[in-house]
């Protein structure tokens, strides 16, 4: 198995007495889109700045494609493309002027600069605005220019911090498609607080809250937690709660009223069939049987409240 393109070990960073990031460890593999998810102020941007070499960790190590970011910063940073939350644009330059400048400062060989600029212009959908001043472009096109500068030197890892912040719905769709395209050739770390963005774009997701990494798993495992794991039940002539707990697959029963109950069960052991059979044979007079579905927001809130989900793998 190939080593990860990016590896972070025990990262910590403080601002005065505030511990913004605490002992965070993770890795990113080739061709992977890693979603870095958390509420505002969770430590996402601080972590992104450390990974990109713009902020030194107080503790911990970062390795980019085999290069230690502290010991070999020049070689390591050459492997990184970074789009901060506020794109680093010179708005008085035209798009093509700015991208030529970015190619030079990223040490693209002089003979390859024109080809590199042409490539990112095509990939980022900038062909119609190459001669326009960046300051005159819409927010969506400015984001495209920001992404173009991040990939112009074909880095191993592309770090995108809130890439769709402030965009309208059409621009968001376009930028997400661009990120999918980038992921075919680069490993991508996507920092965001927008839950559907992670679900749409990422192969793996990490959730950070109050500077600590609480969840590290595939998007498939996160999605599994959204499956039904409880039933709303109403019976005109219900049995005692203990009898409901005896049903195959039932883990717990909440009495919502004298006739209404919430039954919790393991996703792999749905008690619906047993419940239907018992309600008929025991004359419980079933009035309602409704599966409850958990949204990504529900799962997210459960995790950041430090309630361990069943498939959690803490890094």
Descriptive notes:
- With 315 residues, this protein is of the alpha/beta class.
- It is 32% helix and 28% strand.
- The chain has eleven helices and 14 strands.
- It has helices at residues 44-51, 73-77, 95-105, 113-123, 139-151, 169-183, 195-201, 219-224, 241-245, 272-281, 296-304, and strands at residues 6-15, 18-28, 33-37, 59-64, 67-68, 80-83, 157-161, 187-192, 204-209, 212-218, 230-235, 250-255, 260-265, 286-292.
- Strands 6-7-8-3-9-10 form a six-stranded mixed beta sheet, sandwiched between helices. The chain has a four-stranded antiparallel beta sheet with strand order 2-1-4-5.
- Helix 3 packs across helix 4.
The gist of it:
By secondary structure, the chain is an alpha/beta fold. 32% of the residues lie in helices and 28% in strands.
Task: Provide tags for this entry.
315 residues; alpha/beta; Rossmann fold; six-stranded mixed sheet; four-stranded antiparallel sheet; 11 helices; 32% helix
Question: What layout of secondary structure does this protein have?
Answer:
Elements: E1 6-15, E2 18-28, E3 33-37, H1 44-51, E4 59-64, E5 67-68, H2 73-77, E6 80-83, H3 95-105, H4 113-123, H5 139-151, E7 157-161, H6 169-183, E8 187-192, H7 195-201, E9 204-209, E10 212-218, H8 219-224, E11 230-235, H9 241-245, E12 250-255, E13 260-265, H10 272-281, E14 286-292, H11 296-304
Helix pairs in contact: 3-4, 5-6
């Amino acid at each position: 198995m190939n080593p990860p393109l990016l590896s972070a070990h025990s990262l910590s960073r403080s601002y005065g007495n505030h511990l913004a990031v605490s002992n965070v460890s993770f890795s990113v593999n080739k061709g992977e889109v890693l979603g870095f998810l958390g509420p505002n102020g969770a430590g996402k941007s601080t972590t992104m700045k450390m990974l990109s070499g713009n902020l030194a960790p107080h503790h911990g190590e970062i390795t980019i494609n085999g290069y230690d970011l502290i010991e070999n910063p020049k070689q390591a940073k050459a492997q990184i493309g970074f789009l901060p939350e506020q794109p680093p644009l010179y708005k008085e330059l035209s798009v093509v002027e700015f991208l030529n400048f970015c190619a030079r400062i990223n040490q693209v060989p002089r003979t390859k600069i024109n080809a590199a600029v042409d490539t990112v212009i095509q990939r980022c959908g900038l062909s119609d605005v190459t001669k326009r001043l960046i300051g005159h472009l819409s927010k969506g096109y400015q984001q495209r220019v920001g992404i173009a500068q991040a990939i112009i030197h074909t880095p191993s890892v592309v770090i995108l911090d809130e890439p769709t912040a402030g965009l309208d719905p059409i621009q968001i769709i376009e930028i997400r498609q661009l990120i999918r395209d980038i992921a075919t050739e680069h490993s991508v770390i996507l920092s965001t607080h927008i839950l559907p963005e992670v679900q749409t774009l990422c192969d793996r997701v990490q959730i950070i809250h109050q500077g600590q990494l609480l969840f590290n798993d595939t998007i498939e495992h996160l999605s599994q937690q959204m499956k039904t794991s409880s039933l709303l039940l109403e019976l005109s002539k219900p049995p005692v709660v203990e009898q409901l707990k005896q049903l195959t697959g039932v883990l717990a029963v909440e009495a919502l009223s004298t006739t209404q109950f919430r039954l919790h069960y393991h996703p792999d052991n749905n008690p619906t069939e047993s419940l239907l059979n018992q309600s008929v044979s025991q004359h419980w007079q079933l009035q309602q049987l409704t599966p409850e579905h958990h949204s990504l927001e529900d799962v997210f809130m459960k995790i950041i409240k430090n309630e361990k989900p069943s498939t959690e793998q803490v890094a």
